[in-house]
Amino acid sequence: MNYFLRSAAYIFHPLLMPLIGAKLYFVLTPKFIEPQVINAKTCAIFIITILIPLIFFLLLKNVGLVKSINLKEVQERKFPLMIQTLLVLVIIKMVFSSYQSPEMYYFFVGVLFTTISALVLVFFNFKVSLHQMGVAGVTMFLIALSVHFNKNYLLEIGIFFLINGWVASSRLDTKSHTILELLTGFFIGLIPQIVMLNYWL
To answer: How many domains, in total, are found in the chain?
Structure first.
């Protein structure tokens, strides 16, 4: 059971959540999007939100600013979150347009505010759950897509609610976070996506 619980932390790692959100959008959207465009944007998201952060992580680890990819200490999160904030800005400016892809554009604007919120909490010495934050954001995005496209995505939404519980149980099992840190992460991931609905729903 422990292996099952702990696997959630790797399967739904925070770095993967923007890519998962994008892939869900491309699979579920009733809009026609050329496969070449989907591949190009997916590749861009992978490079900007996963590959580049991993390279920066190795650099930060070599200079002693972080100890592990889990970022267990609050202060270890400062530079990775700063870097992630800048990289999400790159996506907003260069990968998605508010006119051509408002759903994805405002999804990443929500991700930006979520990341900034987590960074601000670091300066208050509070370690929010980045895992819970990421999963909650994608869950709210799925709900919004269901309403926006007037499509029944209850199965996908239900699965992600289960994933929220799985991730929370995983983080509690490893004693990585307290219930307060998990709840804070959940709402920090959820609320920016709700706020962004005013612009595209």
So the answer is: 1
pTM, two decimals, is 0.92
Phi, psi angles (nearest 5°) of residue 185: -60, -40
The per-residue pLDDT for range 2-37, each reduced to its tens digit, is 777 778 888 888 999 999 999 999 999 998 889 999
| Sign of the dihedral defined by the CA atoms of residues 94, 98, 104, 109, in that order | positive
CA-based radius of gyration for the chain: 16
Instruction: Measure CA of the first residue to CA of the last residue in the chain; give whole Å.
Output: 40
Locate 132 and state its tokens: 């819970």
**Encoded tokens for 197:** 């609905």
How is the chain split among helix, strand and coil, in percent rounded to 5? 80, 0, 20
Q: Is the pLDDT of residue 1 over 60?
A: no
CA–CA gap between residue 100 and residue 88 (Å, rounded)? 18
Which residues, 6 or more positions from 80, have their beta carbon under 8 angstroms from its beta carbon? 53, 56, 57, 60, 66, 71
Phi and psi of 95, rounded to 5°? -100, -40
Contact (CB, 8 A) for 118 and 188: yes
Q: How far apart are the C-alpha atoms of 177 and 71, rounded to whole Å?
A: 12
Domain span holding position 64: 2-200
Q: What are the E-state strand segments in 72-121?
A: none
Query: Per this entry, what is the length of the chain?
Result: 201
* Residue whose token pair is 């992580």: 57
